[in-house]
Write a structure and sequence with these properties.
Strand order of the largest sheet: 6-11-10-9-8-7
Number of strands: 12
Radius of gyration: 22 Å
Number of helices: 10
Shape: elongated
Distance between the termini: 36 Å
Amino acid sequence: MTSVQLVSPPSELIQADVERAFAEDIGAGDATAELLPANATASAALTCREEAVMAGIDWFNTCFRRLDPQVQIEWTVRDGDRVAAGSVICRLRGKARALVTAERSALNFLQLLSGTATATAAHVAAVAGTEVRVLDTRKTVPGLRLAQKYAVRCGGGHNHRVGLYDAILVKENHIIAAGSIKAAAEAARRLHPKLLLEIEVENLDELQQALDAGADRIMLDNFTLPLMREAVSIAKGRAELEISGNVDLSTIGEYASTGVDFISVGALTKHVRAVDLSLRLKLD
């Protein structure tokens, strides 16, 4: 599905995600699972009920293996694969109690992350034929940022900064506090010379100021299409240009045609619709 390198977050992070999910779902124990015979084993089939791009297999697997280390899990797909509606994508066999207890948390991870990957793939398809790279933002589900950013890569997108520590993005309030775009840029270079410096601008005058200040990347905030094209002409490769604001599937293709380098889409991780999955169990 995607040529973007797919490297899952560290296993310790995935395990921590699962532990938090189990703490809120299982608590002191699964009272309903106790209705099943303690030694019963079962098999299960996972069906994807709609066309989707997969993401989150490691989280899914970790949920079941946390409760039954000997569980057998066989996948027919990998993260980043597009699957057809009605496809059986995974089969499991293990302790019945463990399967029913882990089911909801496992599906929650897989549905959410596959939803992010599927939405990303749609936006990437909409800019096909251009050099534009689709970026995510920091508008993520609290506590699941690295998981969702991984899902964006599964859908063919690229990651913006992970947090407030790995790049500098100077926005309106930063400029007001610093006194000017130039002053903010100078402080950024002095304090963090190795970090990418991006400056958000709201008009062409600010664009020129950001170029003169030596920004690595400039974010065009809510520019009209004609202004986007003019900005590309003015920048002439002196800095990377990113579009942000009012981006959706109906606009991203036109925006990409202006010649900018990046388009960031908060909806990839903020407006997530879970993929429809079903896990059916059968006692041995």
